[in-house]
Each structure stands twice: as structure tokens, then as C-alpha cells.
Write a structure and sequence with these properties.
Layout: H1 8-14, H2 21-30, H3 51-63, H4 72-98, H5 101-125, H6 129-133, H7 139-146, H8 155-171
Helix pairs in contact: 4-5, 7-8
Length: about 170
């Protein structure tokens, strides 16, 4: 069974598959490229009290290459779901303190629903640890191979840099 389709850059960086220039061009023509925005602007429907945090997280995602203008609504939905989850959590805690099992059960159900929504949005945007672990960014490998050699490097590190540089040259 074939795995998920990966961008051409990642296939080249992995070095496990040889592609001709024609194949690379054909693959790149079929890939969708969305330019990153200049800044993370919150959607108009998002409450004003969430705009500051939206901009902060949006800037972090934008700087790391994980945010495009198309992601605006997903990130906004994350903040909305998270805020609603917090409200439901407070109501459930109050019902538990009051000893009202029926009301506590209702609010924990609502709380669970909002938590699932927030978690789904967070995973889609790379806001959770597990979703970031699935993101493959080949630029880090390129940067490591192009990093300047420091005077105090041991022989192993020097050879590793040489192999990375050779692999990058061979992938081109």
C-alpha cells in the first residue's frame, strides 16, 4: 500500500527515490503552492478578545512556514472551541462542587465535544506535539549541510557534514 503523497522537495531530501528532471517538473506542476501571508489577520467573525492571541500564535506558525491565508478559519475555530471548552469546564467543575451529578454529566459531555473540536483544529494546524512530529521540513537538512564548519569539530561531525553535502548535491 502506498503512503501519503509527499511534496517533491521532501522526496528529494529523503534521497530514497531517483527522479529525472522531467519527473520532478511534472510533480511540481501538480503540487499546490500557497504563498505565506505578510501577517496573520484574524477572521472577522472571531471575537475581538481572541484577536491578540490569534495574532501571536499566527505569527509563530507563519514564521515556521505552517500558516497560509487559507488556514485563517481553522485557527480561528481552534481559539473559539478552546474558549468554549474552558467555559464548559468551569460549569462542570461548579456542578461537581455542588454535588449535582446530572448537571455535571451534561457539562462534561459538552466539555468533551468542545475539547474534540479544539484538538482537531490544533492537530490540523500543527499546534500539538504529535502533529508537529508528523511534519517533515527538508530545509533543516539543507541548513545543517550548509552550516559553517567550526574549528573544534570532531572527525565524525566533519564526515557527517561531507555526506550530507554530497547527498544534497546528488539529489539536485
Amino acid at each position: 500500500m502506498a503512503g501519503k503523497r509527499q511534496p517533491t522537495e521532501i522526496v528529494e531530501a529523503n534521497g530514497r527515490k531517483h527522479l529525472t528532471e522531467a519527473e520532478k517538473d511534472a510533480r511540481r506542476d501538480r503540487e499546490v503552492h500557497v504563498p505565506p501571508p505578510d501577517e496573520a489577520i484574524p477572521p472577522k467573525w472571531l471575537p475581538k478578545r481572541l484577536h491578540t492571541e490569534y495574532r501571536e500564535i499566527g505569527e509563530i506558525l507563519r514564521a515556521s512556514g505552517l500558516y497560509a491565508e487559507l488556514d485563517r478559519d481553522v485557527l480561528g475555530q481552534y481559539f473559539l472551541s478552546r474558549e468554549r471548552w474552558l467555559r464548559a469546564d468551569k460549569k462542570a467543575a461548579a456542578a461537581i462542587r455542588a454535588g449535582d451529578e446530572k448537571l455535571a454529566r451534561e457539562w462534561t459531555g459538552v466539555q468533551g465535544t468542545y475539547f474534540k473540536q479544539a484538538r482537531t483544529c490544533a492537530e490540523a494546524m500543527g499546534l500539538s506535539v504529535t502533529s508537529r512530529c508528523r511534519i517533515v521540513v527538508p530545509a533543516a537538512v539543507q541548513n545543517a549541510a550548509k552550516a559553517p564548519v567550526s574549528a573544534g569539530e570532531d572527525e565524525f561531525t566533519q564526515r557527517l557534514r561531507q555526506r550530507q553535502a554530497a547527498a544534497l548535491e546528488g539529489a539536485r
